[in-house]
Design goal:
This protein has 9 helices and 9 strands. It has 227 residues and is α/β, with parallel strands linked by helices.
Length: 227
Amino acid sequence: MRIDILTVLPEILESPFNHSIIKRGKEKGLAEIYIHNIRDYSTDKHKRTDDYAFSGGAGMVMTIQPIEAVINHLKSQREYDDIIYTSPDGEKFEQKAANQLSLAKNIIILCGHYKGIDQRIRDHIITREISIGDFVLTGGELAATVMVDAIVRLIPGVLSDETSALTDSFQDNLLSPPVYTRPADYNGWKVPDILLSGNEKKVNEWKEKQAYERTKKLRPDLLDQKD
């Protein structure tokens, strides 16, 4: 899978993609992540990528030319399944979206900045708009990082145990059950006996019940979304 990220602040994205699971996916050749500085494609002599909004108002707007230029350059080399814009008014990024995008071959993520991008880019170039929550960030770089992390870990072969992703919270609109590790007894705080029983069927039943009960208590809204 190839992910191209377009940004005016590439420095923010350098560290997150060179560690942990994402680094492992890259080293295995399962994920390619390329960061493109939008300023490099600006024809402005000062490499500006923003301008004042028509009709006035506070905040600057990202201009069309450099964004279209970098996207056209990338599209001339390969086809893309989606061209995504990180926007606070986009669809909310949830596990279902991560699952869908993990099946894509090539995607572009455009990081919003300033007051936003010229609407004509959204109207004619962007194919999908995504938000990671109902709040506003300084730029879309952190949102892009969150999305890439959630997507790449789902690519088969990235995780050492591929079944791990299948039991994550939200995969079946349920939160994960509680987990424990050694020692079985710490200062009198004991691991549930069922997890030490070796009875796989009973353990799985316990996990399913715990997942349901935790979801009912902490995120009952998820149960309303179950098929």
